[in-house]
# Entry
Amino acid sequence: MNALETVAGFMGGYIVPFILVLSLLVFVHEMGHYLAGRWSGIRILAFSIGFGPELLGWTDSHGTRWKISIIPLGGYVRFYGDDDASSRPDFEALEKLSDEERSKTFNGAKLWKRAITVAAGPIANFLLAIAIFAVIFSIYGKPVSDPIVSQVKPGSAAEQAGFQAGDRIVSVDGSPVATFSDLQRYVSMRPGLRIDAKVERQGKMLDLFVTPVSTEIDDNFGNKIQVGIIGIMSNAQTGNFRVERLNPVQAVGEGALQSWHVVTGTYDYISNMIAGRMKADQLGGPIRIAQASGEMASVGIGALLQLAAVLSVSIGLLNLMPVPVLDGGHLLFYAIEAVRGRPVGPAAQEIAFRIGLAMVLSLMVFATWNDIARLIS
# Structure
């Protein structure tokens, strides 16, 4: 009985939130492709949530097969003339089509229509993230605190740089700092890099130079994360902690800003990883997403929605990578086609797709290995 309760608890606490969140993000992404393709006059054969054998589905009046497949780790829209779910053209079949039939295929559409159809997926993910963040800010408001130091940790980088309690951080490397979270976000992604902090102290402006120290800390759920830290703290009284209520227009603007923070944070992490300032073990795969979904679901719907928004931006960014098989790879082919005046040859596309698939699978294996290693440790 205990084993059954454990399995039921794991399914309800982790797997169900994971499937719900991922399915929502995949549906929105693929719906972007679908709507743009329909608008472009391209015939669509299938719209699938998940991969593998079909669990259930139906065919609409346009001949599109809508289905839910057994492996809930993605999805696809298959266009007329595609060889498989990755939108790789079936060149042999295309050659046998009449001009009228070919005009309804994805590969037979005009270049700008193909580009819009491909880009619509990631764009839909970005718009979803903005909408989710806007809803969160509209319902819960935006918690903020002033960038004022309440305490400097002894022996820290901040103490060595000359920070003192009561200092207000005005800017870092020339970028204005409005809240303490702005400062935390900037510092955490710059371990080992010197920061020029402009500080207001008793009405005078000072320039303090500090280098964040790469530190491994525990998040709210006990997970190890690596960030840059300088050793200053704030509290509710010193920082004037408050919750700002935003109207719908402000909420959308803040949602766009938060989505942009996820984008810049992702690129900051990648650059730090390449430079060796951060470890690659923070890359997570399906297991980590499932764990995070369960953790956020245990906190509340607001936290789960926030995770969904972050993941939506991440899916959009991942798909824009210039790797064949992904949307960014297709867009790269179209850019080359626009410059050359003709499409990339079938043989070159086939080789590129194979390389791209190997790269994506390697990334998935690496991320899953990180997940397993994290669970074991």
Residues 2-39 form the longest helix (38 residues).
